[in-house]
Recover the amino acids of this structure.
C-alpha cells in the first residue's frame, strides 16, 4: 500500500466481519497450498542437483521456482491476511492461550496500515506497541530514520 497516512480497516457489522474472515481463510489456504507445492518442487530440484547435477534448463527452472516461492512468501507476510507483529502479536498470543493452533494466525482481526513500518498490524499491536506515537528517533538504522523523518514528518 502506498498511503502515507495510518489507515484503519474496521468492520462493524457481524455479517461483513464473517465474510472478511471467510475470504481470508480461503486466501490463506490457497497461498499455503501453493507455497507447499513450490517448496516440494524446490526440494525435488535440490535433491536432483545434489545427486547428478542439473541441466541448464533445469537450473533455470529451479531458480524460477525459488524466486516465485520467495516472492509469494514475502507478499503473504506483508498482506492483510495476518498481523505484521508475527509471533509477537498480542492477538496471536491471546489466541494461543485459548487453544488456537500455533501454526496459524487469527484471521478475524481489524487491521491498521502503518506506513513508516510498511506493514499491517492488528488494533491491539497498534495500541499496545504505541505505533501511532512513534517518532523518527525510534528507528535504529540511520537511513531508515532519515527516510521516515522526511517522508512522514514523525
Amino acid at each position: 500500500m502506498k498511503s502515507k497516512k495510518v489507515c484503519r480497516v474496521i468492520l462493524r457489522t457481524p455479517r461483513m466481519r464473517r465474510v472478511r474472515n471467510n475470504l481470508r481463510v480461503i486466501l490463506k489456504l490457497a497461498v499455503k497450498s501453493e507455497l507447499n507445492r513450490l517448496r516440494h518442487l524446490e526440494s525435488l530440484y535440490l535433491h536432483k542437483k545434489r545427486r547428478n547435477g542439473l541441466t541448464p534448463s533445469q537450473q533455470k527452472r529451479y531458480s524460477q521456482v525459488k524466486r516465485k516461492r520467495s516472492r509469494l512468501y514475502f507478499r503473504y507476510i506483508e498482506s492483510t491476511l495476518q498481523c505484521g507483529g508475527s509471533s509477537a502479536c498480542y492477538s496471536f498470543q491471546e489466541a494461543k492461550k485459548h487453544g488456537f493452533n500455533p501454526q496459524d494466525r487469527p484471521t478475524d482481526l481489524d487491521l491498521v496500515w502503518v506506513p513508516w513500518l510498511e506493514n499491517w498490524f492488528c488494533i491491539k499491536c497498534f495500541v499496545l506497541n504505541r505505533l501511532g506515537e512513534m517518532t523518527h528517533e525510534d528507528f535504529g538504522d540511520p537511513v531508515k530514520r532519515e527516510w521516515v523523518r522526511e517522508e512522514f514528518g514523525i
